[in-house]
User: Fold IPT/TIG domain-containing protein from Natronoflexus pectinivorans.
Amino acid sequence: MKKYFLKYVSITTSLLMIGLLSCEDKEWGEDYDIKWPVSEILSISTNSAQIEDVITITGTNLDKVQSISVGTANCEILEEGHTPNQLSFKLPRRVESGMVTSRNVYKRSYTYESILTISYPSILVTGWPTEIVAGQTFTIDGENVDLITRVFIEDHEIVVRPGTNQESITISTAGVPLTIGETATIRIVGLGEIEGASEVSGVMILEPTDIFNAVAPIILWDFEDGNPIIEDAGNAPDVAERNYGGLTAPRGDNYFSVLANQTGGWTNFIYITREGPIDLSDFHDPHITFLVNTNGKRGYVNPFMTQGGDQRDNHLHNGTANERMPYGDNYLIETDGWEWRSYPVSKLFPDFNATGVFDEVRMRFTSGNVGNSGDPEDFEIHIDQIMITDGLQLPVVKVFDFEDGAPAWDANTLAEGGVIKTDAPTGGGSSYYHLSFVSEGSWDWKGAIEYSQSIDLSGTIDPHVSLLVNTNGNRAFMQFETHQNDVKWGGGPPGIYEFTTDGWEVMTFRLTDFLGNWGGSGTASEFDPKGVMDYFKIGFSTGNVDGGTYEINIDDVYISDGAMW
Assistant:
């Protein structure tokens, strides 16, 4: 019986292989003699609808439907009331009139014969740009501006990708031929009617600059919610887990470790993947940025990015680094503690649109040049806060990290200053600075902490103060003070007179946006962003916190060149 069974399997397998060969390159469910069922639409609840309306269809085999589209726009299928004979779906905001098509698990499609006519709310622009920096982005603000589909700068058309913000859209002028020093007319086209003006004239075209208002980063991995999804790359490392070795996490409470004993060069260990879409259209100069620590040994990781289905990878070395910060990486990284790395997407992936949409980002842990000199060596790398930042992450001076205790308190109306805390979650490292008291009135300068060394800004382009802040749901405020050219300069975060956070947040402020003349014997009318600051103080003022609990926790205070996250 056993031999008979084996022969039967062998014959069946042979016949199956012949069948498979004869069906080569055919998608499952298509072009077969088997008549896979169609999910037929028999009726639709309406022939006209507004965006975001719910539409109900009846038909057959609707429980097998995987997608519903109107024209080319995919719609959200609603779970409630979904049966073999009935299905409801919600229209997206960016949808045009068209036929309704169902596509089911058998890859069979059915299109209803009637057109579904879509109507839209009107678009009202309340904020036009007055100037544009060539090659960079600008915004258009208003109501229902996400329904704008095209923007024209003179005769140059820019297609607007669908977004989720109904009150503001960002337009990139990368690749658009604009004439510096001249004015241009901007015109919009959208779905539905435009209420009020559809164009604005006299928009000045400015020369590109290295100074821009950076958008907040996209965090790819911070490892706070567990281990990332790991994919084997060929050779399993000895360690691939969070927080190996008991190092102090540089941000939050967790980091990710990969170690391999006595490895040779170019041994691939694992991948971690962040699926998209990852939209960088608001970015000016995207960089892949992360914190890394090889703990005195050597390790390596290299990025992969996918755009339009095309996957590429590249490596970390001076040729792909930002010219302003060549780290000396050479297909390997070596550090004795936590350091930043920040590589421009445009140099890593020159064939891609750096400010476009990416399908995914992967990081491959590979030995690279570690152990590539002939003798095997131990591979070790710890990594944290992998993100895409808008610009180079470039610390200039670490003002405070509070790892060595509290700075001296320069008292004014509060005799005792803050204390060092180590309670989780910390901002960066193991310690942070905590100050709390009951406010007795607004705009009361309680005291300050001072970095007393001079800070030379001559090599910077766009100096900022950047720090981590947490008020634990309470209210707080702070101001900054420095001295330059016999003038005291000071101010608070621009346009902010109190703030509240429910956890750690990064705050980053351009120095020239808030430092004003606070007196002195000097004659300078403006702070010099290329000069020398004689000292730097953080002043704890109540601002608009006129009563109740004032609480502020700060950590990792830097003077940075550009925004730092």
In short: Residues 1-30 have pLDDT under 50 and may be disordered. Residues 41-119 form a domain with the Immunoglobulin-like fold (CATH 2.60.40.10).
